Amino acid sequence: MTMTYKGTTALITGASSGLGAEFATRFAARGANLILVARRADRLEELARELRAEHGVSVTVLAMDLSRADVGRELAAALSTRGIAVDTLINNAGFGTRGPFAQEDPDVVASEIAVNISALVDITRAFLPGMLSSAKGALVNVASTAAFQPVPGMAVYGATKAFVLSFTEAIAHETKGTGLRVLSLCPGATLTEFFEVLGSESAAVGIMQTPEQVVETALKALGGKATPASVVSGLTNRIAAGLAQRLPRALTVAIAARAVQD
């Protein structure tokens, strides 16, 4: 089933590039008005102009640093003053760090946790009640295949994504029967700016997918008769995630450590 989302409003974080920009493009094509959130205002404005011209939808741009505290309430207040209600929320913003944890920059680690976990939870809490009342959209939280096992060398990133997966699956259960579709999307290595920020492509495990492929996985899951609480994008990634849950824990940790080495 193809859901149109016509007349609804979707809020997308991390919308300036990669998966966020692809989600924006696909939802605009299905008739959704958009709220695009990221730090880079110029990239957001450029994307907004393209989507308005091509699809005739309303696009609101909010340039924000999601590592700040209370970002959910700040976003909700900004949209309330504009009279905008949110039907769909796509928590896509996030980044990773790499290297032995003892050598990582404490400030960068704090920001990683703030964006990947705190902002996601805060924004979800700010908009979930209204989304449940609307029951016309979806909640999509972007996790990762890193969520399925500890990842030595990317310890904080893997742990944040394990949180996102667990949190989203719990929310999916809590909201059963409400009409709101709740999904944790777990991509593997994807052709985005993630590895530029990370500083190395050596942590790209498995077959690299495109943003189009990953977002198509999410849209198919949302358009099905019953939306799963989580979905892994890509057959090889699904097999790897399944094995990670079945093999002895010590073995999965050792495999993950070897996979992200230089």
UniProtKB/TrEMBL annotation:
Its EC number is 1.1.1.298, 1.1.1.381. It catalyses: 3-hydroxypropanoate + NADP(+) = 3-oxopropanoate + NADPH + H(+); L-allo-threonine + NADP(+) = aminoacetone + CO2 + NADPH. It comes from the Bacteria. PROSITE patterns: ADH_SHORT. One of its GO terms (molecular function) is 3-hydroxypropionate dehydrogenase (NADP+) activity. Gene3D superfamilies: NAD(P)-binding Rossmann-like Domain (3.40.50.720). It holds the Pfam family adh_short. It is an enzyme of class 1 (oxidoreductase). Keywords: Oxidoreductase. SUPFAM superfamilies: NAD(P)-binding Rossmann-fold domains. The keyword Oxidoreductase applies. Residues 8-194 form the Ketoreductase domain. The keyword Oxidoreductase applies. NADP-dependent dehydrogenase with broad substrate specificity acting on 3-hydroxy acids. Catalyzes the NADP-dependent oxidation of L-allo-threonine to L-2-amino-3-keto-butyrate, which is spontaneously decarboxylated into aminoacetone. Also acts on D-threonine, L-serine, D-serine, D-3-hydroxyisobutyrate, L-3-hydroxyisobutyrate, D-glycerate and L-glycerate. Able to catalyze the reduction of the malonic semialdehyde to 3-hydroxypropionic acid. Belongs to the short-chain dehydrogenases/reductases (SDR) family. This is NADP-dependent 3-hydroxy acid dehydrogenase YdfG.
